[in-house]
Specification:
217 residues, mainly beta, Jelly Rolls, 5-stranded antiparallel beta sheet, 11% helix, globular
Length: 217
């Protein structure tokens, strides 16, 4: 009887653990619990980009020593923020080789942008646990994701992009996708969305709508 009780307890604990892990991520909002070291997704930048940006446009990511005043804004297409205990600078520009202050950690492009009268940028930081997942959604512009810690996976109609710390993926505008936290550690990422300013940056899709996505494994 004691062995039976022990076995039942183990099964219940496993089921409880799996249910807790495989849960829906919260949506991105300003000043989410992620800003206080908990799970959540925070919008840290949402601004219009200048008119007449020369294309093609590229993105650069720099790691800063601090958010001192001379770091906060290099120009009208650079944005600084704190995440995962570090300080970051995102720059959108037409140059392919230069970077600004701090340590240059990644760059990419050109950004695949839909034609729009005006572009805007949204930067969001997120921390979620293993097994958690987002709703299927798409953006009105290109999304670039950078992994600060843990392991991330993004399901799209053509592939599942699995990323480790320091890796990036670009998801074109209008592409249905879902974020899934793989691995065994908390996943911390930030996402850069450059989008049509006349449209919402993110649109959630109804359950079962859209094409089949390649699953993360």
């Amino acid at each position: 009887m004691d062995r039976l009780r022990s076995a039942i307890t183990v099964i219940l604990l496993a089921l409880t653990s799996n249910t807790a892990a495989a849960q829906l991520m919260s949506t991105c909002v300003a000043n989410s619990p992620e800003r206080r070291g908990e799970f959540g997704c925070s919008i840290v930048v949402r601004e219009l980009l200048p008119n007449g940006l020369p294309e093609p446009l590229f993105w650069h990511i720099d790691r800063l020593d601090s958010l001192q005043q001379d770091h906060v804004r290099v120009d009208s297409t650079s944005f600084a923020f704190a995440a995962a205990g570090e300080f970051w600078l995102i720059t959108i520009e037409s140059h392919t080789s230069q970077h600004h202050r701090g340590e240059h950690v990644a760059r990419g492009g050109p950004l695949s942008l839909r034609r729009a009268a005006r572009y805007a940028i949204q930067i969001q930081t997120a921390a979620f646990g293993p097994g958690m997942y987002s709703v299927v959604h798409h953006h009105s512009g290109v999304e670039v994701v950078y992994v600060m810690a843990g392991e991330a996976c993004y399901e799209t109609p053509t592939r599942a992009a699995k990323l480790q710390k320091g890796e990036t993926v670009a998801i074109p505008a209008g592409t249905p996708h879902r974020a899934v936290v793989t691995g065994v550690a908390t996943r911390q990422v930030f996402a850069i969305i450059v989008y049509d300013a006349s449209q919402p940056p993110t649109t959630a899709m109804e359950m079962g709508a859209g094409p089949q996505l390649v699953p993360c494994e």
